[in-house]
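Data card: per-record layout.
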Amino acid sequence: MNTEALMRINKYLSERGLCSRREADAWVEAGRITVNGQVATLGTRIAPDDSVCVDGEEVGAPTRHVYIALHKPVGVECTTNRSVQHNIVDFVAHKERVFPIGRLDKDSEGLILLTNDGDIVNLLLRREHHHEKEYVVTVDRPVTDEFIQAMSRGVAILDTITAPCVCSRVSKNVFRIVLTQGLNRQIRRMCDVFGYTVRRLVRVRFCNVLIEGLEHGRWRNLTSAELDSLIPKNTVAATPEV
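The structure for this 242-residue chain is written out next.
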């Protein structure tokens, strides 16, 4: 058989809307994937007539790709692990198996995108593509000019310096910040460096997708215009549901 015609196991799973390629690798390493009854490895390649199972359940044909925007409430966990209470998959309860693009902390709220198209996740999260994420942040004391300037220049956290960003004051204890990277609990850590504690953190924009008009706890399909701007046409493998 021509090995070039075979598909890597992580790509196979992502194209069927089960997870991102990175998550697929984790599933393989955890022994959750079998191919023709044998436990898969990271190097496993799939032929068209192979039987692939996740946790003993056979993987079906590729599903229609969906792309949705959710106004996530505080308390919802951005995990696909259904055993975790208040996980985002059960909260959305979509008819397709979707997963979040990136994450928002449990204590944060606002806009997060979900999809069943595993191939676009890295595209939307890679820093070099400069995808903007905008947040409105409430802190425990007055926002000063010095604080805004320091946040904008970059802050030393997690053994690195955050990338320069756009930061502006909204009101006495509220500021707006636009990031193009996504370090773990980045905004909270940045604020902590200057002695500020975040009281509320709301993501209001991801690239061209706005939270405006999307009710708290509700989700909607992305529009065709949003998709055209967000995802280059040659990266979308199937007709999206809009």
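Known properties of this structure: The longest strand covers residues 198-206. Confidence is low (pLDDT under 50) at residues 236-242.

See the next section for split statistics.
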